[in-house]
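G., the chain you wanted modeled:
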Amino acid sequence: MNIKTTPLFLIFFMANVSLVSDVSANDDTLDALNAEAMVIVKKFAGTLKPQLKAALETGGPVNAIEVCSTQAPDIARKLGIESGWDIKRVSLKARNSHSAKPDAWETRVLQDFNARQVAGESAKKMTHSEITGREFRFMKAQGVEPICLSCHGEKLSPAVSEALQQHYPDDMATGYSLGQIRGAFSLSKKL
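Predicted structure as tokens:
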């Protein structure tokens, strides 16, 4: 059967079957991309958190600030090379004004995360993903845990304030309380 002799309704039916099949393949692809992004987020957090804990134990919060300022970007860079994803952390109250300021899409998602939290959702499992143009974008909320409070909390020691000023002169990432959304892991991958 060629296109000239195929009835019009059959061409329409075949086109719709093709679209349905593409949608389910896209759903599978989105599930796979979401799963891959979560693995990367867990690797990032699973690498940084023990380093921060060790720094806190050996030299207190000032030492943790030093570790975070050098190790977090290095972890993101290495994971990006290893995975082929662009990886960063962003916040509406950025600590690092050079690398942590959100773009328009990230800002919208962070604002949505805050609204979801106000509505009662926990930051622990809060994510958002979508395809924008030819890019898959993923964000995972980063809630304030007890380990975060000595450097991101409401009451900081003078030594911590001084270290933050030294490493992050434009720091806005303080004044948080336990459980608040401090920012998010932001990942993207070209499709």
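Residues 5-25 have pLDDT under 50 and may be disordered.

Shout if anything looks off.
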